[in-house]
């Protein structure tokens, strides 16, 4: 079978005999795909949207949206959504960057699109880019788990909130969802660092979230801390959301409504369409899904976390991740790459030490590396840099596959494309 996997802005063609291909998993794509515009139109044709358009009259609305590292196709949404904000006293558009740099390349393109559509809708608006280190922060107090909730005070004048969120599985927060646009989205570095310390907890994993419709799947300490922080920030102000489930720019499903309600719906659909139970194999090929999901290793690593259940202990992963921006943004280097280049036994002792932001990532990757024979990485990252992080450079993906087949002509191989939006469970 010929398969093509996303790699940056290109595709990598691979040949795998049919008898050796155990599973080829991709994000949900409806057979009769409607246009993004029609899906958005249907999602907005609900009474709660009409009520929202009336509630904004004479009030300040804060719209939270994602930065360039998220691939929600929101550009198709702006022309239909912004006119409903026309009666607002003012609209505050806030890019919820979390700990990402507000100056990241590509963010300006999003800002230009929002500004152009807001002007066309004749809105009175301002646009703000969150900076987790240099914003002016308000103090909302401390969560029951000890997280100090300091948030960007630019939102204090808002009367209600609207979050634009693409929902997918998240390897420690359960799911990407509207709550994350508050914490960590518009919070301080200190707030995010304490919240992310719960990533070492085994219950901080994909598929678990306090807003899940299944009571048995609500226990996630990190996500629960984020929810508590959001409640402290918004207080009694309403939070609406326009949520999507998308892949490679195509919206498969969308809904508008109260954030908790539409998020819970999105979790259920994500479970049914983008979560899969498959048989473990000795070999696994993983692509995060191309840009922006493989823009750097910091972002693309989540693909390994979400799919590792599909490979046997002692097996091998071929990780196809372009990473045109290298390992990660400069502020992640000290506690991500620099830790990942330390001796393996030191990395594995991280949970015993005081948590520093990003350090859960090298720890989780080290845990995966130690249970496998190796992770082979085909990437734009230089080979020596790959080796320094306890990974093996792969110079030709097809030769890796041919080597597996020469060693065992009957071997079974799982293949995953778009892994950043999938969750794999083993039978």
The CATH class of the largest domain, by name, is Alpha Beta
Q: What percent of residues are in strands?
A: 25-35%
Oligomer: single chain
- Number of discrete domains: 2
- Helix amount, in percent? 25-40%
Mean pLDDT: 96
Number of helices: 13
CATH architecture name of the largest domain: 3-Layer(aba) Sandwich
- In spatial order, strands of the major sheet run 3-19-15-16-17-18
In the CATH hierarchy, the third-tier topology of the largest domain is known as: Rossmann fold
Overall spatial form:
globular
The number of E-state strands comes to 20
Radius of gyration: 21 Å
Describe it.
There is one protein chain. By secondary structure, the protein is of the alpha/beta class. The chain has two domains: 2-28 and 279-426, 2-enoyl-CoA Hydratase, Chain A, domain 1 (Alpha-Beta Complex); 36-273, 3-Layer(aba) Sandwich (Rossmann fold). It has 13 helices and 20 strands. Helix 12 (383-388) links the parallel strand 17 (374-378) and strand 18 (392-393). The longest helix is centred in the middle third of the chain and has 16 residues, at 259-274. The two termini are 24 Å apart.
Primary descriptors:
427 residues; alpha/beta; 2-enoyl-CoA Hydratase, Chain A, domain 1; 2 domains; 13 helices; globular
């Amino acid at each position: 079978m010929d398969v093509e996997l996303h790699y940056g802005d290109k595709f990598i063609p691979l040949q795998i005999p049919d008898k050796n291909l155990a599973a080829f998993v991709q994000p949900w794509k409806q057979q009769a795909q409607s246009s993004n515009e029609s899906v958005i139109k249907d999602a907005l044709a609900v009474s709660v949207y009409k009520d929202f358009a009336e509630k904004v009259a004479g009030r300040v609305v804060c719209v939270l949206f994602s930065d360039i590292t998220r691939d929600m196709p929101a550009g198709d949404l702006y022309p239909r959504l912004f006119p409903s904000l026309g009666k607002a006293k003012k609209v505050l558009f806030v890019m919820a960057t979390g700990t990402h740099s507000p100056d990241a390349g590509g963010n300006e393109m999003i800002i230009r699109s929002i500004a152009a559509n807001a002007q066309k809708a004749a809105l009175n608006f301002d646009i703000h880019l969150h900076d987790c280190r240099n914003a002016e922060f308000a103090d909302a107090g401390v969560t029951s788990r000890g997280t100090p909730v300091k948030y960007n005070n630019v939102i204090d004048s808002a009367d209600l909130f609207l979050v634009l969120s693409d929902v997918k599985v998240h390897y420690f927060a359960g799911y990407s969802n509207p709550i994350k646009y508050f914490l960590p989205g518009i919070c301080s570095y200190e707030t995010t660092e304490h919240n992310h310390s719960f990533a070492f907890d085994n219950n901080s994993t994909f598929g678990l979230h306090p807003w899940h419709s299944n009571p048995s799947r609500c226990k996630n300490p990190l996500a629960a801390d984020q929810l508590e922080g959001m409640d402290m920030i918004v207080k009694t102000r309403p939070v609406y959301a326009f949520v999507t489930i998308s892949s490679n720019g195509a919206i498969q499903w969308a809904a508008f409504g109260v954030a908790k309600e539409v998020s819970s719906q999105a979790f259920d659909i994500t479970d049914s369409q983008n979560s899969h139970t498959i048989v473990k194999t000795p070999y696994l090929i993983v692509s995060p899904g191309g840009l922006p999901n493989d823009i750097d290793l910091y972002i693309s690593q989540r693909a390994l976390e979400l799919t590792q259940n599909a490979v046997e202990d002692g097996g091998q992963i071929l990780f196809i991740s372009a990473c045109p921006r290298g390992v990660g943004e400069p502020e992640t280097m000290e506690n991500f790459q620099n830790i990942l280049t330390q001796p393996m036994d030191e990395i594995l002792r991280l949970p015993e030490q005081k948590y520093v932001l990003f350090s859960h990532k090298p720890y989780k990757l080290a845990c995966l590396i130690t249970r496998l024979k190796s992770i082979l990485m085909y990437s734009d990252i230089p080979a020596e840099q790959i080796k320094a992080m306890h990974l093996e450079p792969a110079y030709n993906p097809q030769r890796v596959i041919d080597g597996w087949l020469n060693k065992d002509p009957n071997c079974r191989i799982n293949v995953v494309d778009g892994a950043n939006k999938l969750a794999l469970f083993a039978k």
